[in-house]
Amino acid sequence: MSEFFADVPQIKYEGKSSTNPFAFKYYNPEEIIGGKSMREQLKFAMSWWHTLGADGTDMFGSGTVDKSFGTDGDLMKLAKAKVAAGFEFMQKLGIDYFCFHDADLAPGGRTLAETYENEEIIKETILVEMKKTGIKNLWGTSNCFTHPRYMHGAGTAPNADVFAYAAGQIKKAIDLTVAFGGTGYVFWGGREGYETLLNTDMEMELDNMARLHRMAVEYARVIGFRGDFYIEPKPKEPTKHQYDFDAASTIAYLCKYHLDSDFRLNIEANHATLAGHTFQHELRYARTNGFFGSIDANQGDMLLGWDTDQFPSNVYETAMCMYEVLKEGGFTNGGLNFDAKTRRGSFELKDIAYAYIVGMDTFALGLRIADRLIQDGRIDQFVQHRYASYQRGIGAEIVSGQATLKTLAEYALQMGEVHTNQSGRQEELEGIINNIMFSL
Amino acid sequence: MSEFFADVPQIKYEGKSSTNPFAFKYYNPEEIIGGKSMREQLKFAMSWWHTLGADGTDMFGSGTVDKSFGTDGDLMKLAKAKVAAGFEFMQKLGIDYFCFHDADLAPGGRTLAETYENEEIIKETILVEMKKTGIKNLWGTSNCFTHPRYMHGAGTAPNADVFAYAAGQIKKAIDLTVAFGGTGYVFWGGREGYETLLNTDMEMELDNMARLHRMAVEYARVIGFRGDFYIEPKPKEPTKHQYDFDAASTIAYLCKYHLDSDFRLNIEANHATLAGHTFQHELRYARTNGFFGSIDANQGDMLLGWDTDQFPSNVYETAMCMYEVLKEGGFTNGGLNFDAKTRRGSFELKDIAYAYIVGMDTFALGLRIADRLIQDGRIDQFVQHRYASYQRGIGAEIVSGQATLKTLAEYALQMGEVHTNQSGRQEELEGIINNIMFSL
Amino acid sequence: MSEFFADVPQIKYEGKSSTNPFAFKYYNPEEIIGGKSMREQLKFAMSWWHTLGADGTDMFGSGTVDKSFGTDGDLMKLAKAKVAAGFEFMQKLGIDYFCFHDADLAPGGRTLAETYENEEIIKETILVEMKKTGIKNLWGTSNCFTHPRYMHGAGTAPNADVFAYAAGQIKKAIDLTVAFGGTGYVFWGGREGYETLLNTDMEMELDNMARLHRMAVEYARVIGFRGDFYIEPKPKEPTKHQYDFDAASTIAYLCKYHLDSDFRLNIEANHATLAGHTFQHELRYARTNGFFGSIDANQGDMLLGWDTDQFPSNVYETAMCMYEVLKEGGFTNGGLNFDAKTRRGSFELKDIAYAYIVGMDTFALGLRIADRLIQDGRIDQFVQHRYASYQRGIGAEIVSGQATLKTLAEYALQMGEVHTNQSGRQEELEGIINNIMFSL
Amino acid sequence: MSEFFADVPQIKYEGKSSTNPFAFKYYNPEEIIGGKSMREQLKFAMSWWHTLGADGTDMFGSGTVDKSFGTDGDLMKLAKAKVAAGFEFMQKLGIDYFCFHDADLAPGGRTLAETYENEEIIKETILVEMKKTGIKNLWGTSNCFTHPRYMHGAGTAPNADVFAYAAGQIKKAIDLTVAFGGTGYVFWGGREGYETLLNTDMEMELDNMARLHRMAVEYARVIGFRGDFYIEPKPKEPTKHQYDFDAASTIAYLCKYHLDSDFRLNIEANHATLAGHTFQHELRYARTNGFFGSIDANQGDMLLGWDTDQFPSNVYETAMCMYEVLKEGGFTNGGLNFDAKTRRGSFELKDIAYAYIVGMDTFALGLRIADRLIQDGRIDQFVQHRYASYQRGIGAEIVSGQATLKTLAEYALQMGEVHTNQSGRQEELEGIINNIMFSL
Question: Which residues of C carry out catalysis?
Answer without folding.
Answer: 101, 104
